[in-house]
Amino acid sequence: xxxxxxxxxxxxxxxxxxxxxxxxxxxxxxxxxxxxxxxxxxxxxxxxxxxxxxxxxxxxxxxxxxxxxxxxxxxxxxxxxxxxxxxxxxxxxxxxxxxxxxxxxxxxxxxxxxxxxxxxxxxxxxxxxxxxxxxxxxxxxxxxxxxxxxxxxxxxxxxxxxxxxxxxxxxxxxxxxxxxxxxxxxxxxxxxxxxxxxxxxxxxxxxxxxxxxxxxxxxxxxxxxxxxxxxxxxxxxxxxxxxxxxxxxxxxxxxxxxxxxxxxxxxxx
Length: 269
Fold this sequence. Notes:
Elements: E1 4-10, H1 14-19, H2 22-30, E2 34-38, E3 55-59, E4 69-73, E5 79-82, H3 86-92, E6 107-111, E7 116-121, H4 132-151, E8 156-161, H5 174-177, H6 185-196, E9 199-201, H7 203-206, E10 232-237, H8 238-241, E11 244-249, E12 261-265
Helix pairs in contact: 3-4, 4-6
């Protein structure tokens, strides 16, 4: 299928995936034009990945071995911007007791000729929901405001680990997990706000129903049994939706507790 292939993958430590020989295998097998990574857990100089056909852009956390995002791209962007801009950070008062999420390497935006591509690693609400107030009242509104600000210039694709199952079809056991991190009404509301603002959940253009999961616990053979959650997404501005000719998840690609998600974008405006 012709078109630009954009992938997003929470690698849960790029060095670990690379040491297993699985990152290069993924690149060779899927041949993405652009791949967005979350939870790289490394600085660029610590990564031994060597992909001569790709430009690498990193936004690593100040704290070592934690969080972090990267974009590897065969198509050189016009511009790359790390983090949320200062005016948005100030307006939405992003810091909490755990620190400033903008220093955790959670966002990169790359500007291309006819769209912005943003990758995001959304803060986890934590098991005790202690980071839910940051997430609901500050982070999600700030990130949405950023994407809408970019959209004033050109359409936006944003992708990454949003750390929320959007609805009951997006996790294997919705009743048992109601109110748990990743499936609180506050987190789901944050996701719904993206849809209400005109962003399109690309997977649902092509695939309906449950069973499409992107993350599995390491316990009880959850991945083999597909007892999972869909918390990794690719969303696009409404204007771009008609150019999305495929949207998929790739549970056969191993190396992380998450699997990659992808879209294929028809070339041209």
